[in-house]
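hey so i finally got around to running both of the ones u sent me last week. sorry it took forever, my laptop kept dying halfway thru and i had to restart like 3 times lol. anyway pasting them below in the order u listed, first the sequence line then the structure token line for each. didnt double check formatting much so if smth looks off just lmk and ill redo it

first one:
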Amino acid sequence: MKRAEHEASYSAFVVSRQDHLRRIAYALCGSWHDADDLLQVALTKLYTAWPRVVDGNPEAYVRSILMRANIDAYRLRGRRVRTARLDAAGDPAAATGLPVDERDALVQGVQRLPEMQRKVVVLRHWLGLDVHETARELGISEGTVKSHSSRGLAALRRLLEPDCDEGRPAGPARADRERAGVTHPSS
């Protein structure tokens, strides 16, 4: 391929996938400003590698760059917790069919997870990657993916359903027992 053809195919890829990749970057870092920076770094690196990846899977390649660049940025800025909300225009959870307030709670819950759990949950349950693909993207073992996924989903359940203890159903019957001062034997 000639340089002009490479640039044209790169530009077509970026135009078609930029919004999706930006939402992935946001899900990783929790800030639209940081997501834009992260995406810019990833697209720059993708451009230099484009002749090698154009015939393969460029989206997987750029996701890998996003992950690694985010890890690098995280290490540089130190440990600090960030939470953010998605605006309606860029809400990738909108496809779930959930009401806006439930989507907002879900996204806020994901943002409250520890970094690695958040990454695993986003890749596995938001983007639909399997365990092997997620492990490869993050450079961790499949067992670690499963562990982070399990812990992340359990934490999300606790955040989103604070009335639910694991293994005990929530609902009107339990609320009635609690109002009456009757507790479950395992309490």
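and the second one:
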Amino acid sequence: MFKKLKTQQRIHTGFILAIAFLLVLGSNRLYQRHFSTIQTSVNSVHKDRVVVQDYIYQLNNIFHKKELRFINDDDFTAVASENKKVEKLLLDFGMTKMTTKEYKLLNELTTQFEKLEKSEHMILASHDNLKGGVGVFSIKTLQEIAQNLDELANIQLKESKHMTQLSNKSLDMNMLLAKLELAFLIIIGIAMLALIFIPFTTKQPVFE
């Protein structure tokens, strides 16, 4: 069938096929880009948000136990194992992808924890325990830590929402591109059928 096509018809058909190829190639690259954005967002939501939320939850529990210990003047011998766990959680937190505000809050949290450690060591080395205002100072530090952890938890919610919106936008864009690609391919198919089956005529020279 294609052998019967005239030269100009073949040129037009080749041009249309080239456009179709470029269209499919371009849309495929855009699909890959948007799917990569979606995959990155999903992975980041889990690794940098859901997991971090668990770190914050564990830290909250540990610091709450510490606060109760200061309030009730309980035994402080368990602080060493607690502090090792806190150090690991803060280190793991620092390895995640953070916003500028998160980085600042985490540094503040680390500094506050170091203050608390010093207070605990002072109490362990003291015979009169919480006398001298160490307990009051420590409880104030723990309140600051709790406030920091609350702010970090709020950031996780906001960033998770932002990443979810980004993924949804990428999905919507992929759906739009798929519809546009289908429409263009239909138009190209109709144009090719017209070139193949509709006779191609050229104007004949007019002689007087």
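quick thing i noticed on the 2nd:
The mean pLDDT is 76.
anyway thats it, ttyl
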